[in-house]
Design brief:
By secondary structure, the chain is an alpha/beta fold. The protein contains 26 helices and 17 strands. The protein has an eight-stranded mixed beta barrel with strand order 8-9-11-12-13-14-15-16, surrounded by five helices.
Length: 746
Amino acid sequence: MSGRWTTDRRLGVTAWAVMAVGLSIDVLVGGASIDPNRIVLLATLLVFFITLLVRLGLAMRARRRRRGAIAVLALGLLLWAVESAFLAAPTPGASSHRITSGELLFLASYLALAIFLLVDTEYHATYRISTSLETAIVCGGSASLAGALLLTPLASRFAANGVPLLIGLIYPVADLILALLVVGQVALQVRSRGAASAGMCSGFFVLAIADATFVGNVTVGSHGSTRLTAMLWGAGFALIVGAACRTRPDAPMTASRGMPAPVMFGAALSAVLVLTLRPDHGLGPYLTIPAVATLLAAGGRLVLALREANGAAEAFALSRTDDLTMLPNRRAVVARVEEHILERRPLTLMIMDLNGFKDINDTLGHVAGDAVLQMCARRMREALPSAVMVARLGGDEFALVTPDDDELSALEAAHVARSAVLQPTTVEGLELVVDASLGIAIREPTDRDSSALLRRADVAMYQAKVTGAGALLYDASRDDFSRTKLQLAEELRRGISEGQLVLWYQPQVDAATLQICGLEALVRWQHPEQGLLPPVAFLPTARHAGLMRALSEAVALQATMDMREWRAAGVATRIAINCAPPELLSGAFVRRLIEVAGSAGLPLTDFLIEVTEDSFLAEPERARATLQDIRSHGLQVSIDDYGTGFSSLAYLRDLPIDELKLDRSFVSTMQADHRSRMIVESTLQMAHGLDLRVVAEGVEDAATSASLVALGVDVLQGYHMARPMPACEVVSWLAAWAYDSAGISR
């Protein structure tokens, strides 16, 4: 394909070079005369047209879909070349050339060129009235202007010399018609706007100038064919063939916006000038027809433009109006918000959702639901100031947009809207009271578009619905999907894979012997920029981002590695590892712990899994099966934070567990709060009756420790004994504890 392209380009350059060489030889032979040497002209025409025909032949082979159209063009070119060669041949005794009516080959060639233009279109016509009128304006104006500037001077000469007008003007008029045909095809969107169309149109205009010059020369008695006309004819056909050989785009034509206004204005102005300045003789009366047609088309296009403008304004209004409530819709809200953000003006956006609206639709039907929505819309619009935009986003969701950023004003507007909605409504004989939840978001300097503001208002609305607060301002700390938390989630994902999680350990002391009986593993994140982060700073993000499984597996692996190092140092103690309910019930965490412990050669009896009470509430049977599987591998199970959740005695009786951990909220207050002490005491009695070990966490002072020992608690854990410490300090701390006979009194 590239070879064909190279050959085509070379042939195009060759055609122009032939004309240049022919002109140079003619100047050398004939000197300064304007009349060409007939032999040189004939030879130049022969080589020139053979070059163009060869180029068209290659184009026919390369462009099969256009083969017929290019063949017609080649035929027209051949007919013109034969007639030109006949006329250019030396004729004895001929001193000048005259226009005749018998040049049938020329007429046939123009017919072939017209057929080529009509057949060789790129797209199907789009029959729009506006496009047709625009085409008429441009073509009519161009015809009027060209006729006035090019043909009118010739007509006066024809009248003076007695040359028949129609015969004399047939060729330049035909050239102009073909050029205007190309312009019209572009306007009608059947031919693309580009270099090919421009070259085609330019070629026919150059031919028109050449033919008009030829006719003008004949009327004054000189030779019709001069060096100038020969060069213009050659240039015209070279441009037409070059445009025909161009590659067509495969992509469909993009939607047209119509003719540019300056082009149509210039065409209409040309028609006005022609009507104003046209002569009364010659072609003057004939120019009236295209000029009047141009002005009529311009008037029709103006009327149509006014109708389109009115229709567009109405369509624009409808596109921003909700069909049911006739309030502005989501598109209108987004436009208002974007406008305020762009102009940096204060703005508050509120999103309101009707509570329980689905029940109304399901019970009374959508007709009743639509009536409720219309009632709410009307009441809010009447209750709120006109400066507040009240809009319906869709479904049972509304939006309020206020042009200020005052929190108190926003809360007041939310209260007014909610009060309007709360008024009783009678629908199908039933009195309904519809409540609503509103989320309020105020434009921030960092907002770049409406999406961030809409999202914040939606988050605040969801929080208001969950908490039953009615209306809430956006609070970033309660946004589980804020940009900051999304970034934190990605950093945590990378931190887990790069080993940034570390374990700190808090010792557990046997209350009877004061010996260390275990260590609780507490995860920390060694953030590369923020330093050491506690679990509360990243565990909620891990849950929302689905990273708990990866985090739990990393904890299991790290605990196993630490246990192996301690055993190598002669330390043997149990490690308690926390496990979230989803990871416990899925079994993934336990399988990973069993795998890494086996690889390290550690017994599973050295590990204890701490789970919370909510692990058993949703699926008790599955939880029972999971715990039984855990126990079957030798792992122990502890109930963490006992007493803070729904403490059902049923699971204490039925589930295979080994230990209860009293929550620190009871342990830390038992000295001052009689109720907390009673809960601790009764839990100890019940647990021991079920043969369960009891761990008291949150032991912060000696008095609490002594009271717990007196009540019979089994294990103590808290700051009074030791704070959590990194793994590298555990061995030395255990050695110091063992040598200190005073233990807790230190």
